[in-house]
Write a structure and sequence with these properties.
Aminopeptidase, 14 strands, Rossmann fold, 12 helices, about 350 residues
């Protein structure tokens, strides 16, 4: 029997309801972060299988119970891979439940890391993660090495203080810049501002996080029960990957900034403080730097930019960040920030 596969339009409520019902059978809900939903239809135009994409990740798979064993999922995945290739995405990732990992392994996906009982993170390149670790290992040094992961949206005096504190406590500081472009300030700009703002620290080595240090935008929330479970799942998977990165670089400490205002990062830090020492990695939470009694946050800086309050902005960022935002080059980024609804993230 030949079934048809096509994209489900966001306005096709009938098909989306059927997609949701199929996913529900698998105990998952449709992810909020999807940019392509595919459905396979039978001859009566009923949805009998589904799968979706977000960026270069594949997610939200389900097949109707009456049609299991017919190889429909293979066809859905083949369709999604073709869609990704048309977009120019050849390095693909997927998240799946532990009990489905073998199935995806047979389709040419390779495990990067897993959180037992919850999920497995996979990619379609046999040596993708191994090559990334090999590249990192070339920057391995003698003495004490530590790590710091930073989004810096944008780079503030708080980020600079965190980098200075971490760099002073080790021989080499491996600073990972979150590469994913899900922030108001683009990756290329964030990296440039971090580079300029840490240029006075000779023992800092900058790295792109690549697709392996996972961001909240690409992390799937669809098969975890509630927000706390999502944050915990994200943190545990991120830490499994980070342990492998730490081993490649001989990193024995990770520095993180204290997050008094963010529930998400606060919980994330708590999990790190428990889990990293079990792997022989010290976790050091650095109290936030304050200006005039107020802790510095990138959210406050974005709000000042949005409101055109350049006086507050200049007080909270290094001269290098201020100079860039006051240059003609910053115009499109400033426009994005001013046009954004809520620039404060919790």
């Amino acid at each position: 029997m030949a079934y048809t596969i096509s994209r489900v339009s966001p306005s096709d409520q009938r098909s989306l309801r059927q997609v949701d019902a199929l996913l529900e059978q698998e105990g998952i809900q449709r992810d909020g972060n999807l940019d392509y939903v595919a459905a396979m239809y039978d001859e009566d135009y009923r949805v009998i299988a589904t799968g979706s994409c977000f960026g270069n990740t594949l997610r939200c798979f389900a097949v109707s119970r009456e049609h299991q064993g017919e190889g429909l999922l293979n066809q859905v995945i083949t369709h999604l891979i073709e869609v990704q290739h048309e977009r120019g995405n050849y390095q693909l990732f997927l998240y799946t439940k532990v009990n489905s990992a073998k199935f995806f392994g047979d389709l040419g996906f390779y495990e990067i890391a897993r959180v037992d009982g919850t999920l497995v993170f996979m990619e379609n390149r046999k040596d993708g993660f191994a090559s990334y670790l090999k590249r990192l290992a070339k920057t391995k040094t003698e003495g004490k090495s530590a790590a710091l992961v930073m989004n810096a949206n944008p780079f503030t005096l708080g980020h600079q203080y965190l980098a200075e504190t971490a760099a002073a406590a080790c021989d080499t500081l491996h600073l990972f810049v979150v590469s994913e472009d899900a922030s108001l300030v683009p990756f290329a700009v964030r990296k440039k501002l971090i580079q300029e703002g840490t240029a006075h620290l000779p023992n800092v080595v900058l790295h792109d996080s690549g697709p392996y240090i996972i961001s909240s935008a690409t992390f799937p929330s669809y098969f975890l029960k509630d927000e706390a479970a999502v944050i915990e799942g994200h943190a545990r998977l991120d830490l499994e990957i980070f342990k492998k990165i730490a081993a490649a670089l001989n990193v024995t400490a990770r520095f993180v900034g204290e997050e008094p205002t963010s529930q998400v990062t606060g919980l994330y830090n708590q999990i790190m403080e428990i889990e990293l020492p079990k792997a022989g990695i010290e976790c050091r939470v650095i109290p936030r730097k304050a200006v005039d009694g107020q802790v510095i946050s990138a959210s406050t800086v974005r709000k000042a930019l949005q409101e055109g309050d350049m006086e507050t902005f200049r007080r909270l960022v290094p001269p290098t960040t201020a100079a860039w935002f006051e240059s003609p080059e910053a115009a499109p980024v400033l426009e994005r920030i001013r046009g954004a609804g809520n620039v404060v993230h919790y």
